[in-house]
Design a protein that fits this description.
Helix content is 28%, strand content 34%. By secondary structure, the protein is α+β, with helices and mostly antiparallel strands. Strands 1-7-6-3-4 form a 5-stranded mixed beta sheet, with no helix packed on it. Strands 10-18-17-14-15 form a 5-stranded mixed beta sheet. The longest helix has 38 residues, at 2-39.
Length: 281
């Protein structure tokens, strides 16, 4: 009889424990549902860029630090960036747990940038912007036989003998190096490439020669510059001609002065001795 009572007591205790567990679970279920409802709120992605920007070797900074999660006070967001330029994908440098990214803008074109932000509950939202990268024409900088070149300048034959260096590799495209150079003599292709060494003066045997330098960037844009090479022999002959003309002019001036001096007559006064003799007679 006593054993039956103990068994009944154990059953009652077990029933009571189950009842308490069911009550706890039933009261906790609405809280869990409420939390799930709050976590379904997506984050708000925010980043701003200019509509147009010049191409540059420096990357464009993308800042999404103003993005936030309205369903939570946590700043634990993940940032996924992607971009395209026409049909080409752009590699954007970023870290998922950092809000700042860097996009290369070395080529002109229209770029589409997409930012997707995830919160800790894997809710996500995306934002897309478009920017036009403007092409910058190459800026020509170079030397010809150690003399700086510029539009229309005359380059004289150097005092030293060859070889001479011609170099336009310092030319830039929005700050970056140019893609290629072409040199023309009197409108005919002469050399390809930005840097060369020449042994003979191109204007030898000519009074002068016209040189055109064309510089191209990686977008295919082109800038050109023209200058003149002067032949050393022509310079020397001109110098001799000037000396001869100067000597002839000096001789002419001296001859004219001598003639004027020889034609000048000094007036003669009557002799007093002759007058006295006439009176004595």
């Amino acid at each position: 009889m006593k054993g039956i009572n103990v068994e009944k007591g154990n059953n009652r205790a077990l029933a009571t424990l189950l009842s308490v567990t069911i009550i706890i679970l039933s009261t906790s279920s609405p809280i869990t549902a409420e939390e799930d409802q709050d976590d379904s709120t997506p984050p708000v992605p925010i980043f701003e860029i200019m509509g147009e920007i010049n191409e540059s070797p420096e990357p464009m900074t993308l800042d999404a630090s103003l993005s936030y999660d309205p369903g939570s006070d946590s700043d634990d967001l993940r940032y996924i960036w992607s971009g395209t330029r026409g049909a080409d994908n752009i590699v954007i440098e970023y870290q998922e747990n950092e809000s700042v990214a860097f996009m290369p803008i070395g080529l002109a074109g229209t770029y589409k940038i997409r930012l997707t932000v995830f919160d800790p509950s894997m809710n996500s939202a995306s934002l897309e912007h478009e920017v036009r990268v403007i092409d910058v024409l190459p800026h020509i900088r170079g030397t010809f036989a150690s003399q700086a070149i510029s539009e229309g300048v005359s380059i004289e034959h150097p005092d030293t003998s060859g070889p001479w260096s011609i170099n336009a590799s310092a030319s830039t495209d929005g700050g970056s190096e140019v893609a290629d150079c072409e040199w023309y003599l009197d409108d005919s292709i002469w050399l390809e490439g930005c840097k060369h060494s020449i042994l003979e003066w191109p204007a030898a045997g000519f009074d002068s020669r016209n040189v055109r330098l064309e510089v191209m960037d990686d977008d295919g844009s082109l800038s050109s510059m023209e200058f003149i090479l002067v032949n050393e022999a022509q310079e020397d002959s001109n110098h001799v001609i000037f000396l001869v003309l100067g000597a002839l002019l000096a001789l002419g001036i001296l001859s004219l002065a001598f003639r004027r001096r020889s034609n000048f007559d000094i007036p003669k006064w009557p002799s007093r001795v002759a007058d006295e003799d006439h009176m004595l007679k």
